[in-house]
Write a structure and sequence with these properties.
single chain; mainly beta; Leucine-rich repeat, LRR (right-handed beta-alpha superhelix); eleven-stranded parallel beta sheet; nine-stranded parallel beta sheet; 6 helices; 8% helix; 14% strand; disordered N terminus; LRR_domain-containing; Disease resistance R13L4/SHOC-2-like LRR domain-containing protein; LRR_dom_sf; leucine-rich repeat
Length: 628
């Protein structure tokens, strides 16, 4: 609310008889500037600006004559009010202005509004400023100096300027200034000659003073989340650095001088705009961890192979089309991030990574791996080849999966799983073959006895072999978006199954043996051709989610009443479903029930229109369970 408008709230009740309508002060002043006189006439109200006062007068008041008094306003220097005049004793909310006197007699009634002093700030209530905004930086620096503190944390303090007194903190070893409003640092920073850690992340720095070269003991420099377009030259001169964080800036290139930082063990350049690394990176042989992910890298220099102490190298989410053979020299590497690049192949030299337990090249254009590569990775436990161009399993036979516990081949063009490929994979518990071209499963599928999660969704499977019953450890089975017409009755032997997804197949029925899956919590059978559900579904007492939408169900079995843990039930888009069992009201934990596009002629239209919760109440009242 504008200040003039806020005055109206306080005075309109007292001066209703004056007939004043309050307007925005800016509107008043803008209007007065467009006229040749300093007066404005609005709906029987005139206004004149006298210095910092706005004088409002009702020209339609009884006895007033605008002809005799063109201004229609009393002189602002009117005498002390007479006894018959009424005075507003309230303080103006302008905080410096005020409201003048209003006469009860027949002459034109006037309200004089005094505007506040220029450039004065006003508040509408108690100001609750955060503590950090009131921080006296000088005071904190003096306190640190006087106490001889070696650590100072002024993070999250809304600091925009560092005072020159910082030069006196020569004893300081750790300085934390992250999440402030700094755009630059003073040259006096160069006086902090004992500084070991300098944290400047989450500011707006675009450069650093050259005086930082004096920080000969600086080991950790954190410049994450700033606005650097390049690595400041002075950084390359800080030869004692062991940790350099430059994540989330706007850096486009890395200078050859990076090779000067021979003590660096951690280098993070993640989320910048870097297109290539300099050859000088090979001189930083002390590097243990290097993160250049989420950039625009098109190439990696062969000199990267000289960083033989690297344990982790993250190159994911770049534009790499190849990587040099020399990368295989990094024999101590336990993690190599190559996800989401444009690689069409990887060098065979990667087979030297005897310590690597995870191999992940998701999101590239790789169609094959070098012969024997995976078998050479003897410590391999997790393999992810998803979202590539594989048409077959990597060559290398069963030996390549000896210690592997998880395989993800999702979103490729593989048409079969070779017989016996997992015969030595005794630790394999997770297999994801979603979104491939599988038309059948290998005959030895029954030997995958340790499998816990099996995802075969979005393929072309027409049949599930009976031997699947041997997968006694299976907890998650996903068969959605295939061409299945029926399930084997042996599926009832998967007693540990918690999730069964069968959406978008051609199933006409479910085997009654499904009732043996007492641990099943999630059953999804939407978009099939079911006309009924087996009564044995009532035995699934652990079920919390049931989706049978988009089928041709004609009824819901009354045994559904025993699903006491059911929370979500989707029955929508069953065009032949005309009734619901009264027993549905016994599912007391039901929170979501979708019955859209079901005729349900048994239920009155007005009840249906009111929503599923009222439908449940209706079933309860109409059935034999109304007293419960």
């Amino acid at each position: 609310m504008s200040r003039i408008a806020s005055v109206s709230v306080g005075i309109l009740n007292s001066y209703a008889s004056v007939g004043i309508r309050m307007y925005d002060r800016r509107s008043f002043i803008d209007a007065s500037r467009t006229l040749s006189t300093p007066h404005v006439f609005v709906s029987g109200l005139t206004m004149s600006v006298d210095g910092d006062n706005i004088i409002l007068c009702n020209t339609e008041a009884k006895g007033a004559s605008t002809a005799a008094n063109p201004a229609g306003c009393s002189d602002s220097s009117s005498p002390v009010p007479q006894p018959h005049e009424k005075r507003n004793s309230s303080i103006s909310p302008f905080g410096g202005g005020g409201v003048g006197y209003v006469s009860d007699v027949g002459r034109p009634k006037t309200v004089t509004v005094s505007l506040p002093e220029k450039n004065k700030q006003y508040t509408t209530g108690k100001k609750n400023r955060p503590v950090q905004a009131e921080l006296d930086v000088n005071k904190e620096f003096l306190k640190c100096r006087d106490n001889g503190s070696e650590r100072l944390d002024l993070s999250k303090s809304s600091i925009s300027v560092i005072p020159p007194i910082v030069r006196e903190l020569t004893h300081l070893k750790e300085l934390y200034l992250y999440q402030n409003k700094l755009t630059t640092l003073p040259v006096e920073f160069g006086c902090l000659v004992n500084l070991c850690t300098l944290a400047l992340s989450e500011n707006s720095l675009t450069c650093l003073p050259s005086s930082l070269v004096n920080l000969s003991k600086l080991r950790v420099l954190d410049l994450r989340h700033n606005k650097l377009h390049e690595i400041p030259d002075v950084v390359y001169k800080l030869k004692s650095l062991t940790t350099l964080y430059l994540r989330f800036n706007r850096i486009r290139c890395v200078g050859e001088e990076i090779g000067n930082l021979t003590n660096l063990t951690m280098l993070s350049l993640r989320e910048n705009r870097i297109k290539e690394l300099p050859r000088g990176i090979g001189n930083v042989k002390s590097l243990l961890n290097m993160d250049v992910s989420h950039n625009q890298l098109e190439r990696v220099p062969a000199e990267i192979g000289q960083c033989v102490n690297l344990l982790s190298l993250d190159l994911q989410h770049n534009d790499l089309v190849d990587i040099p053979d020399s990368i295989g020299n990094l024999w101590q590497l336990t993690r190599l991030g190559l996800r989401y690049n444009r690689l069409k192949s990887v060098p065979a030299s990667l087979g030297r990574y005897a310590l690597m337990d995870e191999f992940n090249v998701e999101g590239n254009a790789i169609s094959s791996l070098p012969d024997g590569l995976l078998a050479s990775l003897t410590a391999l436990e997790s393999l992810t080849l998803s979202r590539n161009a594989f048409t077959a399993y990597p060559s290398g036979g069963p030996a390549q999966f000896i210690n592997v516990s998880s395989i993800n081949m999702e979103h490729n063009r593989i048409d079969k799983i070779p017989y016996g490929i997992f015969s030595r994979a005794k630790n394999l518990t997770k297999l994801n073959m979603k979104d491939n071209l599988l038309s059948s499963l290998p005959l030895d599928v029954g030997t995958w006895v340790n499998m816990v999660e099996l995802n075969l969704g979005t393929n072309q499977l027409t049949k599930i072999p009976e031997d699947i019953q041997n997968l006694h450890s299976l907890e998650v089975l996903i068969l959605s978006y295939n061409l299945l017409k029926k399930l084997p009755s042996s599926i009832g032997n998967l007693r540990k199954l918690r999730v069964l997804e069968l959406e978008a197949n051609r199933l006409e029925s479910l085997p009654s043996e499904i009732g043996f899956l007492r641990d099943l919590q999630r059953l999804l059978v939407a978009s099939n051709q079911l006309t009924a559900l087996p009564r044995a579904i009532g035995h699934l007492t652990s079920l919390t989610y049931l989706n049978v939408a988009e089928n041709s169900l004609t009824y819901i079995p009354e045994e559904i009443s025993t699903l006491e843990n059911l929370e979500s039930l989707y029955l929508n888009d069953n065009p032949n479903l005309h009734s619901l069992p009264f027993e549905l009201a016994l599912c007391t934990n039901l929170q979501i029930m979708n019955i859209e596009n079901c005729p349900l002629s048994q239920v009155p239209p007005e009840i249906l229109a009111a929503g599923s919760s009222l439908v449940i109440q209706y079933l309860k009242m109409q059935g034999p369970y109304r007293a419960m």
